[in-house]
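General statements about sequence and structure are easier to judge against a single worked case. No coordinates are needed to read the tokens, only the vocabulary itself. The sequence in question and its structure tokens are set out directly beneath this paragraph.
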Amino acid sequence: MPLVSHLRRFLSCYLLAVPVLAHADVPPTPSLSAGTSTFLAKYVNAEGNVNYAAIKRNPVELKALLRRVETFNAAAARPAEREAFYLNAYNLLVIGEVVARYPLESVQKVPGFFDKNLVSVAGEKLTLNDLEAKKLRQPYADPRVHFALVCGAKGCPRLSRTAYAATQLDAQLTTQARKVLQDPTFIRVDNKAGKVQLSQIFKWYEADFKASGKTGVAYVNQFREGKAIPATYAVDYYVYDWALNNQK
């Protein structure tokens, strides 16, 4: 066989092999949900508070996740994938908006934090309020999202250290609702006085809960597993704590 033919054959085999070897050396990119879980486990403690200072010092992970939030193809996703995506996106974007302004005492100190400032989500520019209402509350009509979304305040439900995933979403939302609605700092039951104080979330979003068929204590009791609040108890709402959910 001529030398030129040998060289051509060698080069052809080499070029075919190179992509396979290169691909084998590159670890698979984790899903957005998996990457978000890793991030949350690193920077969120058991009380649901965020180590904003540490993220500010090293924002590489957060920036990478936010880029993926910005470029996610929501139109091609299944309904459960979209819902899980938007839940994770909201929580990541709130953290991102806080970190961009940190140190910060409260998101309420930022004009337009929820209703004017625009964030990038799946190729769209939205306010956080629009993201919550148009991408989650309206299309899914599931009040459990109110216990999964965390607006950067102490008065919010505790931020989960695990991201939401399409394959487990229904179970995750139920588990989160149970955790939140049995948390004595969120649902404040005074058995001696025969009263209960609910989060103002139940007042602000009463229409969402009413659409599900139950409101207030009746809705809460679905998730309290043997610790039902008597229907005779007086119901009130405690003042929402807008202090930043920051680790000290």
Observations:
- Confidence is low (pLDDT under 50) at residues 13-24.
- The longest helix spans residues 3-25.
